[in-house]
């Protein structure tokens, strides 16, 4: 049994309570490691270590910080297969996905922000016959990063890298459901020569460790990715302390397919945008709207492809979907399939668990599921399911589909399929979401602003937006006349 340790003050340490929590392998449905059940006292130690490290880290030149981060990226890259296998084992996702998406992206996050900081410049505002204002961008101090389980190292590093590059010291908590690659990252940081206390990783439960981070007045900013309800809890606690907050929350993304789309492209990409990572990506399109003239043709072709999609154990090279992340999550997703039926929906394919054989017989596998015949405003079409379940709905006009697409409390991303240039611009403009992909999905340029509107979040990550979040601007005026 592997025991994960906290990374505090440059050391791998046990939780002060000595208590551990079970860590499950979702592909086999059994415990395979133990995670520290950390408490407020562990957060206190991590914050003290971060505070002590801050003067030296923030005083270092940007290029020295950058070098250490690049070294960490190179070390992850050198252990790519080991990291990908660990991510897949911890999360249930196919190893191929972890190898091609999760771990390369974690490497890119470190490299991107390690170099972005070298190009990050502040503004200056000249006042004729008076003087000049210039803006200093100073690191905040000790900041907190809290991340979810769906893209564990990918989203963990997406927060940590800009925070560190900007000169902050970090206390970070990965999801208790998928802690393994964050633990491996602590070993990498030691090897890369990251000074003690610059990054501290504390494992444990959200309502204990995450809550202690949120309440700690010495943590001046929190970058959080996770569910909307948790975001609300964090905001309620952090707001009276005037902490800076970046909240990346849930989604219920529309995928709008017009009759003039490139049918083949739309079909194959929709398969991915619906079910990649077992549908557990905040950017997956879970509501598919299809223009009436191609509704039946698209539906039949889509259902045929989905029904042939292979669900298997994560190390099967042919697996397109692996296991869902946990038993409670599998049960939650299945409860939405029941709800959809109660609401009058018909399951066109999927809807049931997949029972593999042998050592994988207790894993949390679910067939990719397509549901038709639901009203756009029913609960199934309004609430985030976060699993391999999509609904399909026909539409007749642009106005109608925009009203349906914009009807949820969420506004993270949207996908539009059309060959009509002006319509693409018009619809993209009118969608209430932070991100729109036209004739594509999940094309990511790390320089672009990333985040959602409405209950999908507050603030933006990515590029200089993230570096601005993790710094405080200070304006200095110099009189020259
Ligand atoms: P949760 O909100 O349950 O958890 C996210 C993180 O917050 C975990 O580390 C969790 O710890 C921690 N946490 C839980 N309770 C608290 C608390 N009271 N105070 C502080 N921290 C807490 O989300 P999930 O992990 O279930 O992730 C899925 C959600 O994340 C979905 O809603 C999805 O849409 C969203 N998401 C959004 C993205 C975006 O960019 N907008 C990207 C990816 C996912 P623990 O695991 O121990 O409970």
Structural features, described:
The protein is built from 15 helices and 25 strands. α2 (62-78) packs antiparallel against α4, α4 packs parallel to α5 and α9 packs across α10. The chain has a 7-stranded mixed beta sheet, with helices on both faces. It has a 6-stranded mixed beta sheet with strand order 10-9-8-11-12-24, sandwiched between helices. The chain has a 3-stranded mixed beta sheet with strand order 1-5-4, with helices on one face. 41% of the residues lie in helices and 24% in strands. By secondary structure, the chain is of the alpha/beta class. β11, α8 (228-238) and β12 form a beta-alpha-beta unit. It folds into 2 domains: 2-249 and 456-479, Aldehyde Dehydrogenase, Chain A, domain 1 (3-Layer(aba) Sandwich), CATH 3.40.605.10; 254-445, 3-Layer(aba) Sandwich (Aldehyde Dehydrogenase, Chain A, domain 2). The termini are far apart. It binds NADPH dihydro-nicotinamide-adenine-dinucleotide phosphate. The site of NADPH dihydro-nicotinamide-adenine-dinucleotide phosphate has 33 residues, from α7 and α8.
């Amino acid at each position: 049994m592997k025991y994960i340790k906290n990374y505090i003050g440059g050391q791998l340490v046990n939780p002060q309570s000595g208590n551990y929590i079970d860590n499950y392998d979702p592909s086999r449905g059994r415990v395979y490691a133990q995670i520290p059940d950390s408490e407020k006292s562990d957060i206190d130690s991590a914050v003290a270590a971060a505070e002590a490290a801050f003067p030296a880290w923030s005083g270092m030149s940007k290029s020295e910080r950058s070098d250490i981060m690049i070294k960490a990226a190179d070390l992850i890259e050198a252990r790519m297969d080991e990291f990908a296998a660990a991510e897949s084992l911890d999360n249930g996702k196919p190893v191929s996905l972890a190898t091609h998406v999760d771990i390369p992206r974690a490497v890119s996050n470190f490299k991107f922000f390690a170099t972005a900081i070298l190009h990050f410049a502040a503004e200056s505002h000249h006042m004729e016959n008076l003087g000049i204002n210039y803006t200093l961008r100073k690191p905040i101090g000790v900041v907190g990063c809290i991340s979810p389980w769906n893209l564990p190292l990918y989203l963990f590093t997406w927060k940590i890298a800009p925070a560190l590059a900007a000169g902050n010291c970090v206390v970070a908590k990965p999801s208790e459901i998928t802690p393994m690659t964050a633990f491996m990252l602590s070993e990498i940081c030691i090897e890369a020569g990251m000074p003690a206390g610059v990054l501290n990783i504390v494992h444990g439960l959200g309502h204990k460790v995450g809550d202690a981070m949120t309440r700690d007045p010495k943590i001046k900013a929190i970058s959080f990715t996770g569910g909307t309800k948790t975001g609300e809890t964090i905001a309620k606690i952090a707001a009276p302390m005037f902490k800076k907050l970046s909240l990346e929350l849930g989604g219920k993304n529309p995928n709008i397919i017009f009759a003039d789309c490139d049918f083949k492209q739309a079909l194959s990409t929709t398969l991915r945008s619906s079910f990649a990572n077992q549908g557990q990506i905040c950017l997956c399109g879970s509501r598919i709207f299809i223009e009436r003239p191609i509704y039946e043709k698209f539906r039949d072709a889509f259902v045929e492809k989905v029904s042939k999609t292979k669900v298997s154990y994560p190390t099967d090279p042919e697996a397109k979907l692996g296991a869902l992340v946990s038993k409670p999550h599998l049960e939650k997703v299945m409860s939405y399939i029941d709800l959809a039926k109660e609401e009058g929906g018909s399951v066109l394919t999927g809807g049931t668990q997949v029972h593999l054989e042998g050592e994988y017989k207790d894993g949390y596998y679910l067939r990719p599921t397509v549901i038709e015949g639901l009203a756009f405003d029913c609960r199934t079409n309004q609430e985030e399911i976060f699993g391999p379940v999509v609904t399909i709905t026909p539409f007749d006009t642009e106005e109608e589909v925009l009203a349906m697409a914009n009807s949820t409390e969420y506004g993270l991303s949207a996908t539009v399929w059309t060959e009509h240039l002006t319509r693409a611009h018009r619809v993209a403009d009118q969608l209430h979401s932070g991100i729109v992909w036209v004739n594509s999905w999940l094309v990511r340029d790390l320089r672009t602003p990333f985040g959602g509107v409405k209950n999908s979040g507050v603030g933006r990550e990515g590029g200089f937006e993230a570096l601005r979040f993790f710094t405080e601007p200070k304006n200095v005026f110099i009189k020259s006349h």
